[in-house]
């Protein structure tokens, strides 16, 4: 996979500090799965957390804390935590997303949003929305900006916007300062995972008209 | 245990000895955590507990966990240290960093009140010019020193993000600055810290 667009440092720091909403964290985990460059930067962002842990003012535990933990050391692990195997799944989806969907992109209950656009809402908790978007060749998403942050991970196909060309594995990491209008630039559908921490704002007249209907 | 005699009254020398001791201690934690996987020595675990559990509890409390839950999650985190010690790799992270990520993951899972899932990352390809174990610790050490030299406004967003688990928008609201400024301060801080990593960019 030839990845040329990566996360902003600030996004990796938010992931490292555990402060990203659930859907954005899922998306970051998916890209990390594919991208050694971002994994390396993540380990640096996590080292900041480790350094801060060393500097923090310690807080006493309950008097019996050590004993009660020691008593549990030899017990069987109560509930094994499900681990997501890093092995690439047969569906070509990054493992964290495959684990969540339990199916491949062609067997999802896609819902039509408008001309040439389908979506599946992942219904994750927390602020913002997380959805898969499938956009037909030649179709463009209305011009929009963001009141918060928007992360997009391309899973299949590609699109071009004011920033550049994005293909499978690439991420677009945008905030309110960016205004863009992606257009699918091959004869293949473009499927992306999109996670936001606040609603999008459409800018053009068309955008304002469609927003109430498609609820993007 | 503050029994260092000042050497010739040179304050800097005394300070640098104190720093050196702290550094040795941190290297020591990584070595102990590595040995725990092989020896399963409970006395070693108890020493790790004494140092790290009160720090983990302080961290979790600052993230906004109620006291009873913070205590419980801290104990869970320390239990994970015991159970997962074999997964610790001192070539990739220091003991502090590894325990930080364990505690962070437990907090995220707890706050979401849902089944815990861990996104295990693929193993890295062996690096042709593989750093040795000591070198990674030196890099983290340099990063620690660099944090202390960050300008106040960068240190502030770093603390709000890592210590209080605040999102960028929440930090923007709290400080009354635009979202873009929060992110640019974090980027500036990160690029300074990364410069001490001595590679890339």
TrEMBL record, chain A:
Gene3D superfamilies: Anti-sigma factor, zinc-finger domain, Jelly Rolls. Residues 103-196 form the ChrR-like cupin domain. Coiled coil: none annotated. InterPro entries: Anti-sigma_ChrR (IPR012807), Anti_sigma_zinc_sf (IPR041916), ChrR-like_cupin_dom (IPR025979), RmlC-like_jellyroll (IPR014710), RmlC_Cupin_sf (IPR011051). This is Transcriptional regulator. It comes from Nitrincola tibetensis.
From TrEMBL, chain B:
Gene3D superfamilies: 1.10.1740.10, Winged helix-like DNA-binding domain superfamily/Winged helix DNA-binding domain. CDD domains: Sigma70_r4. SUPFAM superfamilies: Sigma2 domain of RNA polymerase sigma factors (SSF88946), Sigma3 and sigma4 domains of RNA polymerase sigma factors (SSF88659). Residues 48-115 form the RNA polymerase sigma-70 region domain. GO terms for biological process: DNA-templated transcription initiation. Residues 141-193 form the RNA polymerase sigma factor 70 region 4 type domain. The keyword Cell inner membrane does not apply. Keywords: Sigma factor, Transcription, Transcription regulation. One of its GO terms (molecular function) is DNA binding. Belongs to the sigma-70 factor family. ECF subfamily. This is RNA polymerase subunit sigma. It comes from Nitrincola tibetensis.
